[in-house]
Amino acid sequence: MVGIDDRSLGAARPATRDPHPPAYGVSGGRLLLRRSGASAVLGVARDWAADEADRAILWAPVAIGAGAVLYFSLRTEPPAAAFLYPLLLAVGLWLAARARGFGRTVSLPVGAVMLMLLGGLAADMREAAVAAPRIEREMPVRTVTGRLAVLEEGEGRRRLTIAVRSIDGLSTEETPARVRVTWRGREFDAAPGDIISAPARLSPPPPPAAPGAFDFSRHLYFQRIGGVGFGVAAPTVLVRAGDLTRLLDRVRARVERARVRLARRIRAAAPGAGGGVVAALVTGKRGGVDEEAERALRDAGLAHLLAISGLHMGLAAGIVFFSVRLALAAVPAIALRFPIKKWAAAAALASSLGYLILSGSGWSARRAFIMTGVLLIAVLVDRRAISLRNVALAATIILLTSPEAVLHPGFQMSFAAATALIAAFDASRRWWEQPRDPGMAARFRRYAIGVAATDVIAATATAPFALYHFHRAAIYSLAANLCATPIMAFLIMPSAILGMMMTPLGVDGPFWRAAAWGVERVLAVATYVSGLEGAVGLSPQWPPAALGAMVLGGLWLCLARRPWRAAGLAGLAGGVALIAAAPRPDVFFAPDGDNAGLRLSDGDGIAGPSFAAVNRRRDRFLMGVWIELSGLDPLGDRPAAIDEVAECDGAGCVMRLGGRSLAFSYSVEGLADDCARADVVFALYPTPRRAAEGCAARLVDRRDAWREGAHALTLSEDGVTIRSVREVTGVRPWSPE
């Protein structure tokens, strides 16, 4: 008999599946070499598709989010059953496909459609659940009576969110569920949960500043806020929170009071910008963060330090976990008899839940809590749980409970960063898990590489959303994060955790001051980095399709596993092409029709200013939005007065822009002359019907703004394009009447 050595036996053993297959698998490439022609390509594609089907669950929140986006993009409110009946049909088809053994070729597409319809249905149901009356026009001073639900305190102002019981002059059917009132006067003793009476001047929620701009009206609609305004006198307490009868109201009041008291305690122990940021990190109360500090953090790429994100939740849970485990390990009688690791995980889970409640339960905080909670529960059941499935689970829960989150920049940036980081970790898992030199220098080098890689990946993943929503991106964020992240990890968060633990004992002051000192160092880094030349990249307004193409391309890069994941680069390139081809607005007309802004260029023969306004001292927030949409910096590109760039008299102004003649009419006496010599006329007043019908130019007047919202005009060789907010958003429950 011929002997068989161990090497021969080894070659005959069945191959085992690699638990961490490489991101760009080699098996398909080798197969392609052994085959030829179209059959080879189809065979490899089938193998790759079969492998990707195992990860179909990762695409579930993508399909749900797409359904929610479809719902919000509709220009009219769909019928109640528009999503329900097709969803029931899709569920039936999916079950039938599974039962008849059609396989994934049929069940996966049907499942994707089913999840999209589920997302649309969730958004429709959410809209119906939060529906409440809204104030439709500006009101004189009225007395608002209701429960003080949320209190935000800042320098020289307080913002009150009131759960309304009554408003003078409004019937029950006309009364909003909530209003938000800003008070800039003296302090008052009302606390969250108290029933108060506050005289205020109210107006409808603000509409978008321009077509395609962020819709604050929709954002407030889903918070059930139907009016905003300014208080004219300090609120008066009618009933204290302790006298409330509903248990849920008392619980909410206690939580909000605890947040307000802790924020005040932190700011009292550590006055200044550092204490305000620490209060925001711990309680989610950002009123104490001054605009200068927030701007420096944003332009340095450190704005994520203000959001209750995975970094903060992970650090807080990690500190509690390792502290509890270390304390238990110091007692041999406990450490040798009981599962102290699981006890530490349970303590960290409880502390994470407390942190979520204390911080206000924002979207990024909820995502961070779900992912951290899954990780800690995995420790309790002896499983490993750092995977993209955690991200998919967190996104699915949030999208089904708060579908409006899909349009919010906080949700988009939070999940983009988390998805990209975990996908990159999975792709490089072998490198990170291989044995390393245990020396301190090697550990420090490994830590620095990890921080740098994390920042580069997160910054790249969130840059499209920052440019789309805020029209600016930090260029030097890597340098800023390399300096700031260690301070956050080793000083600020540990001090904040100890401060919360010491608060009941009354000895928390030194810890808040230590955390604030660390924040001051971070702010110094942010101020220096944001002040460097070229620290901020600016971008004009993008078309929504450009962001959609980039999102799909980025998701394919992160969620696909086989080499065809590189096709995601085509989506990114397509987004860039759409941005380059998109026309930029040249003129903006205000939602109330009493102001206009113009983007200027050297080609128009206008030297100096980049932006001009009919009234540059009015609507400064609106002006800032217009300047950002034009791809300019509101701080560096101050608007010029229109009489500096146009020919003006008492009746209005005339100028040439983009090869077209524009007129801004201030009074009806000069309208006929403007209509005769201009291509487009903006009338800052309601024009009489006869005068409007006789105008030979394109006429946009104040009545158009009242009816259609803000307007944007684009000048091109093909002519003049005018878009309105109503044209983009349609007529929805949150649209102004």
Can you walk through the features of this model?
The chain has 737 residues and is an alpha+beta fold. The chain folds into four domains: 55-130; 141-244, OB fold (Dihydrolipoamide Acetyltransferase, E2P) (Beta Barrel); 261-538, no CATH class; 587-729, no CATH class. Helices cover 51% and strands 14% of the residues. It is built from 27 helices and 19 strands. The strands form four sheets. Strands 12-11-10-9-18-19 form a six-stranded mixed β-sheet. A hairpin with a 2-residue loop joins strand 18 and strand 19 (719-724). Helix 11 runs antiparallel to helix 13, helix 13 (340-358) packs antiparallel against helix 14 and helix 21 (544-559) runs antiparallel to helix 22. It is globular. The N and C termini lie far apart (94 Å). Mean pLDDT is 85; it is low at 1-35.
